[in-house]
Amino acid sequence: MLQSLAGLRAVSPESRERDQRAAFLGLVGLIGAATTAICLVLSQFGGVASAIGLGGLILFASAAAGAALGFLFSVPRVLSTGEDPTVTAGGKRGSANNRLMSTNTNMERISEWLTTMIVGVGLSQITSVGGYIQSFTGFLQVRSGATLAAAGPFILVVGLVSGFVFLYLYTRLYLSSLFLHVEQLMSRVGLQDLPKAIDQIRVIAKELAERDNASMMKYIASVDQPSFDHTMYVLNALLYEDRGYEKVLEIGDELEDTAATEMARYWLIMAAANGQRHHNLASLGASDEERAEARKAALRASRKAVLLDNTYKRRLKELSNPKASDNDLQDFVKDPEFMKIVGQ
């Protein structure tokens, strides 16, 4: 392995998907605004152009109103504020983590107030709907003729319902996950999703520090909460120890359910550890099934690393050079699937 693995936290596929969904909603808004502006210009002319412009304005204005209602009706409620509902022996609630910020629920309150008000006002004015529609059609008939006057109420209802359904479903299906993601980030401000094997990391760092007098290892052994970067540093050092890859794989398995899997560096280390395992299994005369399992794990980790950070292709290829000092993946130098991963 390379002594210095300057792996960066890469953007995960889940993060990219969240960004794309948010960008899509922004794109829909821009297209709607641009189309509305075009319709506004057309409405200033006479004849068919004016009718098309007014029809478009009715459609997009009602769709915007419906979308606003759909959002208000679908704003998710924040149930967690970072407290653990379990009660301690002293009768006090335990705290899962000490949050530095609390969730702003103003949007929820406004949504509830407006929803209640809209429903109440709507029910009280339902008998006046016929008069409003008649006034609306009268305006359209004066402005653009009988055709648009007849179609106007239908366009209004279609836009209102379409906008409501679209943003209601989009919020429930996609935007709610964004709200949840933000809530999870806020609940971990100042903390990291630390591995269960954190005590092992400290012990290993302490042993390496005492043996090699390494200042970085001394620091990691002394901190209260080693970070993921600290953990990767220790795991990287373990790869140089005799059969150290076994401990790396053990700790790496516990990290599978943490945010470490969003780091290309983590997958590079796991690929190297599985590469060492694959090579040692051959020298120990292990079965083909065991070697196939190690190969599969090494290829999976390599693929994950490249997916998160394309520049890791070069690092993986360097590790497959049998003549290099760091040749953890030397068994894969002629492996077709591995060569495909590294772009050869």
TrEMBL record:
Entry keyword set: Membrane, Transmembrane, Transmembrane helix
Name under which the protein is recorded: Uncharacterized protein
Record field: transmembrane: 22-45, 51-73, 113-133, 145-170
Domain of life: Bacteria
